[in-house]
Design goal:
Number of helices: 8
Strand content: 15-25%
Oligomer: single chain
Order of helices and strands: EEEHEEEHHHEHEHEEHH
Largest sheet: 6 strands, mixed
Structural class: alpha/beta
Distance between the termini: 44 Å
Radius of gyration: 19 Å
């Protein structure tokens, strides 16, 4: 079986305007892919297509060899705005996700499993609190806990740390990597970000989208050993080389669009 996420000639248009065009990407199961690109390049649209929230206009999009035709528990999504139910406690938010994935499991057992996920993400003290009582970083950890609780082998993450301060952002980057690296089997992750350093620190691979319409303009491997060490990475020649490759791809794309205008 062809395990992983595969896009063959995928395109999408909005009100007749092409948003994505001829996307050909294969992401093996267990890979962490960082998705970069300027605003308007279609990064979020690509995630929505992979999640089954929008239908592709052309081409074929499949997960583990099966065409994506709608939402599924196989593919979890984490948005920047947390998307927690404000009227439920943190533990109840997680328990609802488990109930979707395991409807025959007793509520007491689902609650116990929800507490386990919250402990793993450092939220044990917030179990009985409500989303409005939490900091932004804590709410995002709860959103990640809920996505993990669904048991989805594919996680689609749309700038989940974009609204956080640098300290909390770094903490959640490390926490996400720890959870991902310790999981057996590892989940496949597609992570949208505008931050090149974040993309490199987290990813096995960088996909860069150009815009008007969105298409892959660079597909770069990140040849850095895991586990990653932040201080060592800052001094890495590999980091600088990847930064330059991403910047060069985006500049070239901009120049081509200006010539075509």
């Amino acid at each position: 079986m062809n395990l992983g996420l595969k896009l063959d000639g995928v395109g999408f248009a909005y009100d007749g305007t092409p948003v994505l065009q001829d996307i050909n990407v294969s992401i093996p199961a267990g890979q962490f892919v960082s998705l970069l690109g300027a605003s308007g390049s279609g990064k979020t649209t690509l995630l929505r297509l992979a999640a089954g929230l929008d239908p592709v206009a052309s081409g074929r999009l499949s997960w583990n060899g099966v065409m994506v035709v709608g939402p599924s528990l196989e593919r979890g999504v984490v948005f920047q705005d947390y998307a927690l139910f404000p009227w439920l406690s943190v533990v109840d938010n997680i328990e609802i996700a488990i109930a979707k994935a395991k409807p025959t499991v007793r509520k007491a057992d689902r609650q116990a499993e929800a507490r386990k996920y919250l402990r793993e993400l450092g939220l044990e003290a917030a179990i009985g609190r409500y989303p409005g009582e939490l900091s932004g970083g804590m709410r995002q950890r709860a959103a990640i806990a809920r996505a993990l609780a669904l048991g989805s082998p594919l996680l689609l993450m749309d700038e989940p740390f974009g609204a956080l301060d640098p300290v909390n952002r770094a903490r959640l980057q490390d926490l996400l990597l720890e959870v991902w690296e310790l999981a057996t089997p590892r989940k496949t992750i597609v992570f949208v970000t505008h931050d090149v350093d974040e993309a490199i620190y987290l990813g096995d691979r960088l996909l860069v989208l150009g815009s008007s319409p969105g298409r892959v303009i660079a597909d770069l491997q990140v040849p850095l050993a895991r586990p990653r060490e932040r201080r060592r990475l800052l001094d890495s020649h590999t980091l600088q080389a990847l930064r330059e490759q991403v910047a060069a791809a985006l500049v070239e794309d901009t120049l081509q669009r200006l010539k075509a205008a």
